[in-house]
Sequence to fold (688 residues):
Amino acid sequence: MKKKMMNNINPENTNPLLEAWNTPYCTPPFDRIETKHFKPAAEEAILNANSEIKVISENPEPPTFDNTIVALENAGETLGKITSILFNLNSAETNKELQSVIQEISPLLTRFSNDITLNEKLFERINHLFEKKDSSGLNTEHKILLERKYRSFKLGGAGLSGSSKERFRVISEELATLSLKFDENVLEETNSFELHITDKENLEGLHDSLIEAAEKEATSREKKGWIFTLHYPSYVPFMQYSCKRSLRETMLKAYSKRGYNGNEFDNSQNVIKMVNLRLELANILGFSSFSEMVLGDRMADTADKVEKFLDDLYNASKPAAFRDLETVQLFAQESGLNDKLRRWDWAFYSEKLKKKLYDFDDEILKPYFLLEKVESAIFSLASDLYGINFTAVTNIPLYHNEVKTFEVFDSDNTFLSILYLDYHPRPGKSGGAWMTSYRDQKNENGIDTRPFISIVTNFTRPSDTRPSLLTFNELTTFLHEFGHALHGMLTRCTYESLSGTSVSRDFVELPSQFMENFAFEKEWLDKWATHFETGAKIPGILVDKIKEASTYNEGYACYRQLSFGLLDMAWHSILEPVTKTISEFEKEAMSKTELFPPVEGLNMSASFGHIFGGGYAAGYYGYKWAEVLDADAFSYFQETGIFNQKTAESFRRNILEKGGKEKPDKLYLNFRGKEPSIEALLKRSGLK
Ligand SMILES: [Zn+2]
Fold:
């Protein structure tokens, strides 16, 4: 009470976001931060950052790495702290009030970053340094930092003048609008379709939980019977379990025609406009194609490399894909289908065959994956591999009382990181799982600032009668996010913008996907996975089934991912504007990966949100690329022993500690002693 009164008397000093934090390790003082603090804090931090930028750009001294690049790296520190709390909270614990604050702050942030990119004096200094980068005695880390800063200015339109600058601005804005419109159309078309069933017979094959949900959906729309929609939780199980072939056909066609119905929500023209504008944008910036522009800082840094990669994988997985197709086709015939397998039959028969072959499901596995046990098993795994230790602490301020916090120490007891774990769904939390940070590592003038890392998930909440038991998928999710967290916690870099997970997009999933491999290892599961009630060890036969089922229909799955990767690259590697229709273009790009008899009137591109709504343009291949890396890396562990200290040490020193301070291919080579090959992935997926 007393504190509150003081606050009112002296408003200048009351915003905790602008103060030095007097908390353990200087962690964010969540207990004192209120939503109303964000806007004034952001405004003040932007003002301060702007004057820091001004000092750099107006500096009368000639540009040096320190007075320009390092100074720019360090500018806006408070703003960074504030926005990381703001956006992290908006994902993990949001509310209407916070959302509206974000809407007010976002335009300020956009303007702030545009003001920097389009600051000509500043870019002149960076450009000057960039041109001399090979003759000015910079080490690799310096050079990478300089290249990254230069690139972000360049791709933001810095250095353009006159009409091209104006055209750049127009195109950027138009692309942003088109991309939003694209997503809105897909959402509209996803929402507007319903499959209304009134005859109970048409529910044949569906599980009770799905039927219940469909009944609820119908009631909420004031209808009788059952309603199925194109949203994943309804669409996916319907396609897997509905015995009614014609209804599956209806559903699949509706799903695959989203954005392609010739109505006001049709995306055909939007797609053509976007790829042509992206090409023009790339050309203005001096690149021959959009993919060349985007791939510049990737591990696969040219379109040729990506295309060769997709081609290699295509050739390797083709026989397996057709084998999978044939197996399911045969099974379908035995089950009474007198026709060729069509697209709407795949999920149904493939799921049925899987059940027949492996006969196990999540309910059988869950009792072995008690959340608390999984948590300590994953911590022990990190201790076994890297010698690090976790100590639970209760003195760190929290944004929600469910969050757990840990101090993480190295084997010699030096402090590495704070780790926040936030497990269960809440109304203000987004879906899915992610790793994030409240502070990133940096080493300034010999002072190593350690990071604050957070893992947020939506694992099943314990009930009054049952503790939190994870599904196998939740177990791999935990391992995945923990892999990202290790990347963030173990890092040792000089510059914040290169540390931890700040690496190329097609490299960032290596540490995370790498960790998932352990879930399939008997040697690891045997150490800890016991039944939460009986204490019995997980049966060997279950572990074998987990492993066997992991390769089921992988040929088909790989082929399908490739077809999307190829389509993405086709749209973004054009050198001339597209004059064909969306359908003609897509048919050509996807013809070589077609497994089923063609169906007229369907279109993938018109609802391909990853590349036209989200940020995966010329990046969809990255999913498979990272799989090649993690499979190859893990095969090295398997060769040398999955807990081999020397191999783990090498993975830590060469990959996990290095962040982005060295090129990823170099890092990988240093760890592995050779370049990654697709062999390990083919073997793991059962394609060989
Ligand atoms: Zn990830």
Q: What stands out?
A: The two ends are 70 Å apart (CA to CA).
